[in-house]
Amino acid sequence: MGFLNSLLLTIIRALHSIINNYALTIIIFTILIKVAVLPLNIKSRRSTMRMSALQPQMKALQDKYKDDQEKLNQKMSELYRKEGVSPLGGCLPMIISMFVLFAMFYALRAFADTQLITQFLTFYHNPEIDPRTMCEPFLWIRNFWMPDSPFASYMPNANALRMADFKVWNEVSANLAASGVIPQALNFADSSAVQTYVNEVVAPFIASEAYAPYVAVVPGLENLSILGLIKLTIFKEGNGWFILPLLSMGTQILMQKLTMGAQQMDPSQQSTQKTMIYVMLFMSLYFCASYNSAFALYWVVGNVYAIFEQLGMNKYFKTQELKAAKAEEVGIL
User: Fold this and answer.
1) Domain contains 234
2) Rounded alpha-carbon distances, angstroms, from residue 51 to 46, 203, 247, 274
3) Is there a domain that residue 115 lies in?
4) Under a CB-based contact definition with an 8 Å cutoff, are residues 103 and 5 in contact?
5) Which tens digit of pLDDT belongs to each residue from 7-65?
6) How far apart are the first and last CA of the chain?
7) Which residue range is the domain that position 293 belongs to?
8) Position 282 in a domain
9) What is the DSSP string of 23-62?
């Protein structure tokens, strides 16, 4: 996973050096990844359709050998070999997509940590700078490396900085020191050293007059409680309007419905699919609302692309089915 994270970061940096806009870089990068796995998705769809066509034969075997599981497995394997299909043939693209999704999460989290540490250390050592000039805006979002939410400040807070790896702190501070932005590099030995630094240096500075105005909360709307489980704070200058997290949920629902509609499933498969929808909805809301907007944008763009891809494949395979039916009708097949 570490190698893949580094590879993704390298590609993102290379694209950004050409495009010079991180949001557009993420959008283009997402589309490139989706296009790269398109042949696998088409192959998966064909496999799924062939498996659906075998449902009557599979059902007959299940009824015939319902009392002999070993024999049933043997006959099912023979059927798969004869028809040249695999029950797992449609899973590969999903596995790859999930693998890339988590790799992107960690890669963009590391990248966001780099940007947030850069913003904090630069302002900490140069408080005369307007911190707004250091942020990466995107449409309604003030800082692309913080969550798209009114419950998040646009300047990095102690919690966001606390989660960054100590190696990222060391690397960023070394680069800033080499360029003369800060007087000297940090040299943390481990994560506990970062926690001490955040508690003794970062948190007090964030509470100071120089930094506090940029993370000010709306009076009376700090530490809001939802069912006593979730604590929220509304900032005077929040980082966004929660649009990307909501879009991630909406596009996730539409994508899953299109996928289910394109497949013939028995009741047990439909139940499993519905469970997966709820799991993915929770994941999309949690990750897109809790972490950087760059990852949320990646999630939304990926879903939108998947929706159009699914619509396109539905139309393509429907056309192929009509052509095959017409050819059979006139005696060509």
Assistant:
1) no
2) 9, 58, 33, 20
3) no
4) yes
5) 888 888 899 999 989 999 999 999 998 898 888 878 777 777 777 777 777 778 777 77
6) 49
7) 242-333
8) yes
9) HHHHHHHHHHHHHHTHHHHHHHHHHHHHHHHTHHHHHHHH
The DSSP call for residue 141 is B
Question: Per the structure, how many domains does the chain have?
Answer: 1
Instruction: Return the structure tokens found at 311.
Output: 């619509």
Cα separation, 163 vs 290, whole angstroms: 12
Region of 31 please: left (phi>0), alpha (psi -120 to 50) or beta.
Answer: alpha
pTM of the model as a whole: 0.84
Helix (H) or strand (E) holding 231: strand 230-232
The rounded distance, in Å, linking the Cα atoms of 216 and 222 is: 10
In DSSP notation, 171-214 reads HHHHHHHHTTSSSS-----SHHHHHHHIIIIIHHHHTSTTTGGG
Task: Assess if residue 74 is contained within a domain.
Answer: no
Of the candidates 108, 124, 188, 125, the one whose C-alpha atom is nearest the C-alpha of residue 156 is 124
